[in-house]
Amino acid sequence: SRSHAFYGNAEQAGIRTPPQRYTFFMTFDLTTTQRTELQVLLARWSAAIAQLTKGQTIGQVEPVRDYGVGFDTGEALDLGPASLTVTVGLGLKVFTDTYGLAQHKPPLLRELKQLPSDAMKPELTGGDLSLQACADDPQVAYHAIRDLARIAKDTGAASTRWTVMGFGRASAGKGQSTPRNLLGYKDGTRNIMETADFEKFVWIKDGPAWQRYGSYQVVRKIQMHIENWDTDRVSNQNDVFGRHKVSGAPLSGVKEFDTPDFQKTGADGNLVIPATAHIALAAHENNNGLKILRRSYNYTDGINNVGLLDAGLLFISYQNDPAAFETLQTKLGASDGLNEYISHIGSGIFFVPPAPPVGSYIGGSLFV
Ligand code: HEM
After folding, report:
1. Which residues are 223's β-sheet partners?
2. 213-236 tens-digit pLDDT
3. Are 128 and 351 spatial neighbours (Cβ–Cβ below 8 Å)?
4. How many CB atoms lie within 10 A of CB 345?
């Protein structure tokens, strides 16, 4: 199966990489106050990720000595690399005096504004480090996170905080077919695909050299009220998104990739794509050209305590300024027709440093 190199690109894999089919996302709290322990964790994670993305184990599965405990837990043996990428994010607490790193804080890294539409659960919010493992085999993604969490525990530097398992991609990259989210709509039709847009909207291009080709990762666990949605007329669902359910075409057009016409009016004189439609609010045409990269996944947590389906979207966006997300979410939160059917219940923001040079590790140049 396909393998994505850990070293070799300016940026970390898993952002521009066309979305793999599955994700396992986890955040961690820092539990150490020692700079060197954070350093050891990032170095060990990097070395392990470099191995895992080649489809190799990160230590003995069946130890040579019969009193040995296995290091690699083994469940990904024989599954190959499965296009695995693991993208590492650093939260605000990393850039503090505790670790002697306050002066290195990426200038735009800050807590996201609390928005009126938020319904955050503290246990699904925050985190000092993030790992997004994506792969075409769910067990490969799971194994990567499990063994990286083991390393975190082993170093004593960090403990697990919140996690989401995504079972289906809900975003498209260049050359990919557009998948569907759990509301049944094609998601990722108009996403960032071209290099020029990555350069303009995703990668950090200024500041100290070690931050360049980094990006800001915004993560939202967005619960869907699926049973309500399913009782809604499809014509109303189409108005909520501004697109047709089956074809994915904008209501102003016929084919998926037709450019939406937000001015077009129907025989009744009303806008064909309602002004409160999700795409009308989020489109770059209506936001001074603003774009973000979406790299989201469908998730499920089974059923809740009253027997309703507990599922939604693990929304992940990358942008070179977190304000881009806030601008769009502020607009969506105020008038999106979708709000009746979703709740933002989890949130995190992380700086994703660029890929390290060969032989170094993620964030390594911070400690020089
Ligand atoms: C477009 C679904 C949350 C930003 C779309 C589309 C769908 C969709 C079906 C149209 C297809 C496409 O162009 O990709 C959802 C669902 C969400 C959600 C189900 C929550 C559960 C968000 C959030 C943001 C966002 C939180 C940003 C704050 C966008 C943008 C577009 C888009 C920028 C492209 C609009 C365009 O250029 O036409 N979304 N979305 N979405 N969404 Fe969302």
Report:
1. 312, 343
2. 999 999 999 999 999 999 999 999
3. no
4. 17
